[in-house]
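Incident log, structure service

09:12 report received: a user says their structure output differs between two submissions of the same chain.
09:20 pulled the input from the user's history:
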Amino acid sequence: MKLTKAQKRVLDFILQHIRERGYPPTVREVARAFGYRSPLSAKQHIDALVRKGYLRRASGVSRGLSLAMPLSNASSLSLPVVGTIRAGSPILATENIEEYITVSRELFPLEEGFGLRVVGDSMKDAGILEGDIVIVRPGVEPTQGDIVVALVEDEATVKRLFIEDGTVILKPEHPDMRPMRFKAADVKILGKVVGLIRRF
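09:34 re-ran on a clean worker, output below:
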């Protein structure tokens, strides 16, 4: 659908923000960028962009905007970033999504995936630190020693995966922590970690 000049300027600003920073602006940041006295004016333009199919919105998060189409030539992919997983909720339930990030398909050759914000330092010796966002490819059969995101008792954890005699072993990369052992039925592997993003 055709955009007004004002809507096109707002869309261009949002695209530039995502390209430069890796995440979308808030409504207040859009309002500030265009000198709107009220965030309502920015919200009206964003609502129009969502209605016309240029943007998607996740409710309940301040940076819940994502592109409804790749940035250019399908070279980028917008991924949801999830944090703490609430008991009983699917990992990509709207209430779990903190923000969206745009990643390069050249760096992360994905068709779909998600980011998970790391809590703790159990994988520090693998170079994964607290606050990092690990990029996860779902639907891939992991092999021995792969770093995976596993769901154990409704909590997502990042560990190395080993399977021995039907027992799932989730091994941390920390000298002071021991591997955790579970029955296969008690663990759900959500995906394989294919990289990470670290912000300074």
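09:41 both user submissions now match this output. Likely a transient worker issue. Closing.
09:42 reviewer note: The domain at 1-68 is CATH 1.10.10.10 (Arc Repressor Mutant, subunit A). The helical segments are 5-21, 27-34, 39-51.
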